[in-house]
Amino acid sequence: MDENGHRGVRITRRTVLESGTVTAAFLLGGFPRFALSAEESDAEAVTPVSVELRVNGQLHHLALDPRTTLLDALREHLALTGSKKGCDHGQCGACTVLLDGRRINSCLTLAAMHDGEPITTIEGLADGKTLHPLQAAFIEHDGFQCGYCTSGQICSAVGMLSESRSGAPSYVTENLAEAQSGLTDSEIRERMSGNICRCAAYPNILAAIKQASGAPT
Amino acid sequence: MKAFTYERANSLAEAAAASAIPGAKIIAGGTNLLDLMKLQVERPAHLVDINRLPLDRIEDTPEGGLRIGAMVRNSDLAADRRVRQRYGVLSRALLAGASAQLRNKATTGGNLLQRTRCYYFYDVTKPCNKRDPGSGCAALGGFNRIHAILGASDQCIAVNPSDMAVAMRALDAQVETVDAENAPRAIPIAEFYRLPGDTPQIETTLRRGEMITAVTLPPPPAGQQVYRKVRDRVSYAFALVSVAAVVDAAGGTIRSARLAFGGLAPEPWRVAPAEERLLGAPASQETFDAVASDVLDGARGHGGNDFKIPLTRRTLRAVLAEATPT
Residue A133 and residue A138: Cα distance in Å, rounded? Predict the structure, then answer.
């Protein structure tokens, strides 16, 4: 069992796929009991914290075990499973979301630390049925294989392009004193190094990001 | 993760007082603390969140330096125009550390206090004098490729993992704090860290309830600033060896130099005799070799990390050559 009280709750990808009604019921019910989160051994010691999470423009009032990471709050309490739990230690980037427009690892922060702050996940990038340009570019360039890292890659790339536009330098920026001169391949690789792709779709991820950045691919 | 209670501090005094309670810890960016809490290496009973405190400004000081609030994020500090133009070594060191996502969260104060990445410190099934005083050191006879060659003890050979602190050491930064009674103190970074000796669990000279509020940089020293980091991957990896250098040279002669090293020791490492040797010395291979010997005086490998001795020598030579163009 993990600390979010998943003992006895076994939802596999298959059961979800086979049972759309179960999914719908959870969504309507907002994961009420599923969301109880405390190790049984010290459940009594836990005082829930009240958190208002503002995710993709929607406000959610939650009472959470203080241990709940932002990633677990999104996935297990708000059913926003687009953000992925890869390593859960800030090493892979699969959990990347945008906090006030800036990319962060949602696994390495507590939900309680983000009361009222605007959070954007992969689910919030598209404009209705129109994909975000980076989503469209990833599809066009086949920027994935298994797809597990993809939502993190895309959220990270959204944050990266905004950092780059604001003139933020990177480790490979030659002249730090000057404004950053443009997104070369090595700039994009360095700036995206916090997102690991075990399928090694890197060349296509690079091509997708270049296209979305407006650079010739 | 062990259960804890959570509070959001509304003032500096409140935060310092709350953090003085045994079992309490301050959480800032959280990128290192939460990682360690998940592994139960850190087990605080209470977390004091200081993210809403107004410690996120970078201000010019009357002396011509900069005062960096403890909550300034690593990415913001690296991108600050004043830091990029006047303290390039610091900007480059920050950008060499972690990933963009982590730098967006990690703070100036938190970076100074980040814990070692020694595998055995992280593995709670192994003895570690830093994590569990008196239990022994698994790194001494284990895999110690990333470990210290300088400043270590027979109790602990872990290295400080920070890039930022190495640059700050070269820049003679001061760490500003307040204690639970709100009394301020300024600690030169040279006196901020403690070598492991017989108490590797104590890493800094901070007292209980004392909280970092800012880091002050004196006016930028003259000369060229370089940060070079050697690591297993080209990006997003801790340093095996890193060098922060500020070297003032003209016409092939070195007027002054500061050298700080990461990846070699339990704290950012600086060697006064090495810097003194560079004063007025010709920028030559012979000088660089002699300086490397000064830096490596007393260096000792533990098997897996023996390579760091020649690697330091070569990296330093390259840095000094880069900083003294002919």
Answer: 9
- Average pLDDT of chain A, as a whole number: 85
**Which residue in B has a C-alpha nearest to residue A68's C-alpha?**
B1
CATH 3.30.470.30 assigned to B5-52: no
Q: What is the CATH number of domain A133-213?
A: 1.10.150.120
How far off is chain B from A146, nearest CA to CA, in Å? 22
User: pTM here?
Assistant: 0.92
Tell me the CATH number for domain B224-323: 3.30.390.50
Options 3.40.190.10, 3.10.20.30, 3.30.565.10, 3.40.50.300; CATH for A13-123 is 3.10.20.30
Contact A110 B1 (CB under 8 A): no
Q: What is the ipTM of this complex?
A: 0.97
Read off the pLDDT of residues A90-135 as tens digits, 9 standing for 90 and up.
999 999 999 999 999 999 999 999 999 999 999 999 999 999 999 9
Supply φ then ψ for residue B246, to 5 degrees: -125, 110
B144-183 residue pLDDT tens = 999 999 999 999 999 999 999 999 999 999 999 999 888 9
CB atoms within 10 A of CB B240: 21
- d(CA A85, CA A200) in angstroms, rounded, equals 18
Q: What are the two backbone dihedrals, phi and then psi, of residue B100, each rounded to the nearest 5 degrees?
A: -60, -40
CB contacts, 8 Å: A176 with chain B: 84-85, 88, 91-92
